Amino acid sequence: MKLKTSTAITDKYIGNIEVCEHSTLSLHGMIVGNVYIHKNCIGNIHGMIIGDIYIAAKGIANIYGTVNGTVYNNGGTVRIFGTIHSHITTSGNTLIGNNAILRNN
After folding, report:
1. 57-to-1, 4, 75 alpha-carbon distances in Å
2. What's the whole-model pTM score?
3. Apex CA 64: angle with CA 102 and CA 66, to 5°?
């Protein structure tokens, strides 16, 4: 699903999500699939992603919840305050909060 407006997900969604065109994703539920944060877009993750998250250059991801896959920072800004159950790759700005939980890193 391509998001072209700011959207909140509070339930379970099965499938990939693309955050496009200056929009913001507010996740308070669960996504079973991958999440793609494009340029000039924001993902505020308070819920859970059962998959990977990809952040493009000039994209922003604020992760307060859980990612059960890999965080791919491809030149964006990533702030991690929650739990990552796989790896973090970074070529952009990555901030890892003091209380973040990183497994398999």
Report:
1. 20, 18, 4
2. 0.95
3. 55
Locate the domains of the chain by residue range. 2-102
Residue 78 neighbours by CB distance under 10 Å? 24
Q: With helix as H, strand as E and coil as C, how does 47-93 read?
A: CEEECCEEEECCCEEEECCEECCCEEEEECEEEECCEECCCEEECCE
Task: Give CA–CA dist 63/10, Å, rounded.
Answer: 15
End-to-end CA distance of the chain: 30
Question: What φ, ψ does residue 29 adopt, rounded to 5°?
Answer: -115, -135
Residues in contact with 1: Cβ distance below 8 Å, sequence separation at least 6, in sequence order: 13, 15, 16, 17, 18
pLDDT (tens, 9 = 90+) of the chain, 105 residues, equals 999 999 999 999 999 999 998 999 999 999 999 999 999 999 999 999 999 999 999 999 999 999 999 999 999 999 999 999 999 998 999 999 999 999 986
